[in-house]
Design brief:
Strand order of the largest sheet of chain B: 1-2-3-4-5-6-8-9
Distance between the termini of chain A: 8 Å
Helix content of chain A: under 10%
Number of helices of chain B: 0
Oligomer: heterodimer
Helix content of chain B: under 10%
Number of strands of chain B: 9
Order of helices and strands of chain A: EEEEEEEE
Structural class of chain A: mainly beta
Chain lengths: ~150, ~140
């Protein structure tokens, strides 16, 4: 049986890092790399550091491509359990105003009281600009055979 | 109507730079990868991969990656370039991958390409990329 955790977050750091030269298209959208720091409130209380690769439309051309992939390590309290875990997620703008996103907890990335955590992640931004993360999770532990 | 492309690939370069290594074994790294493709995709790609290994000493313990991949060559005989974004999860329970062509990223005769992809690894180690795509 899984548990759903809802939380909101604020972006407290957004730093552009040197972009990877080899995977850089010569035309069309360009690839940028960011380090993003967030602070969470709600069923998860804590902070995260994320590394994000993002294609952004090239302003000089008519290209519209945009999409990102992110690996993010969260540390804090999830429904009162302390530890850290890693999520990976991404999103695409498939048409104007239509986004598709996906995300998962990396298996076996949980530590301390969060050891064995698995789950699915959904990130959304409300029309008021509030960033929210929904985590549907459970614990897989070898000893008790539970899924 | 969508077309399906099936291509095998070889990893020709793997340059791994860790940026976070914790005492408990969790390792986060950036990996610059190069690949060559054969089959319905002929050409090469440059990939920027972000990887999380749950235990750096035991890859089967659990891992995940996200990737941005720039492919240049031909797809079903049509030439150009495009960007794929994809992810994978590896663990004792299951292996999963999924990904998309970044809309608006294709150039040349492939301009307008959209599609969805997955990667499978055969028992003999052959990596296969399957791309279901539409070319407007």
């Amino acid at each position: 049986m899984s548990t759903i955790a809802n939380c909101t977050y604020e972006i407290i750091g957004w730093e552009e890092l040197p972009s990877p030269p080899d995977a850089q298209p010569t035309d069309g959208p360009s690839l940028a790399r960011y380090e993003v720091k967030k602070r969470f409130q709600g069923d998860f209380e804590g902070d995260s550091t994320a590394e994000r690769l993002m294609y952004v439309p090239n302003k000089d051309e008519s290209s519209t491509g945009t999409g990102h992939v992110t690996i993010e390590q969260l540390t804090g309290l999830l429904n009162g359990l302390s530890g850290s875990f890693v999520i990976q997620h991404g999103g695409l703008v498939v048409a104007q105003g239509i986004q598709q996103s996906y995300g998962h907890v990396v298996p076996e990335s949980g530590t301390e009281e969060l050891e064995g955590i698995r789950g699915v992640v959904e990130i959304s931004i409300s029309s008021a600009g509030v960033h929210a993360l929904k985590l549907d999770y459970l614990f897989h532990r070898e000893n008790d055979g539970s899924e | 109507m969508s077309k399906r492309a099936t291509a095998t690939f070889n990893v020709t370069g793997w340059d791994d730079s860790p940026y976070h290594e914790a005492e408990n074994g969790i390792r986060l790294s950036r990996v610059a990868v190069t690949k060559t493709f054969g089959g319905d995709m002929e050409g090469s790609s440059a990939v920027e991969l972000l990887m999380c290994q749950a235990n750096a000493k035991d890859l089967s313990a659990g891992a995940g990656y996200v990737a941005s991949e720039l492919f240049t060559g031909s797809l079903g005989g049509v030439s150009g370039s495009f960007v794929l974004q994809h992810w994978g999860l590896m663990g004792a329970a299951a292996q999963t991958t999924s990904g998309h062509v970044v809309p608006g990223s294709a150039t040349g005769e492939l301009a307008g390409l959209t599609g969805k992809m997955e990667i499978s690894v055969a028992e003999d180690g052959t990596h296969t990329l399957t791309l279901d795509y539409d070319l407007a």
